[in-house]
Amino acid sequence: MNLAMKNFLETLPHSQIAVLVEKPENRRYLSGFTGSAGFLVITKGVPSLITDGRYADQARAQADGWNIVVHKGDVVLVVKELLLEQRIQEVWFDALFTSFDFHRRLADTLLPLGIELAPQYELVETLRQIKSSNELENIDRAFEITNHAFDYIFGELHAGLTEHQVSWMLERFMREAGAEKIKENHVVASGPRSALPHGRATDRVIERGDFLTMDIGAVVNGYYADMTRTVVIGKPATRQTEIYHLVLEAQLMALDMMRPGLMCGQADDTIREFFRERGVDGNFAHTLGHAVGLEIHEKPGLRGSDATILHEGHVITVEPGLYFPGWGGVRIEDPVVITASGHRNLATVTKELLSL
Q: How far apart are CA 81 and CA 241, in angstroms?
């Protein structure tokens, strides 16, 4: 049983509660099991991992200390038997992930037996916010590959390439460097399309004078990297230089705030005020940043409504951007690990405005 699971068990108030875990990232975090089909039934006794025959051997190898249950029929009936064996009186389920149909079947099966169903919110996600040393090793490696990918692509970019070609060059490099995959929906957007914060690659041919925004990330052992750089193909125009340096100034200001004790919303509010004073707050189309880990977007978030206080072990991206429809946009994104004395920036790639 891993440390994450031991910590989670300490959150259970008594032995007559069971927690059902379906979400793949939470399942992996608590059990180590990486298969695509699995279901956790967690109690103060021996926890159970329910899966099917395709993953039986994998589950036994990965989920040390777990009771592995291989089923062929309705998983709800398997859950019922496990609960009855341990005289469980209350079942906690993930209110944000459990489907209506599955909840209905659970209720039809368990309520007549006197077993209550209690919705819970982000029980595991709250524990996942603070990264362990092992998690940080995986995150460091994912960002190392991503940094190298940017260094590589900066030497290859030129007018005449398509966005799809650049996207594939980045993906191929990261996979060959050891990434198990790359983050979903990575961004390669050029020219006027760089005004799209999440612009997916197209067949558009990159031209001289274009902004080119690349938002990419390698994945290592399930842990995501997320980093963005914007460059200019050819010589930058005066306005391009001005907007780029405005975003860079905002990012450096935000990075300087990243330390234990900061309330997440304060950072977002500060940067919005910075842009407001310069008349471009309406062009900042997203939040200042977010946590990363087993998911590309985790909590806490650097947004005005988030009152979370940063602590040592949080991993947060800082990514201000300005977007002007029909013209283009700039985003600069660095990831930081919050440390006891401040933060450690995982981005080693230059933030100078590159003319390529």
A: 65
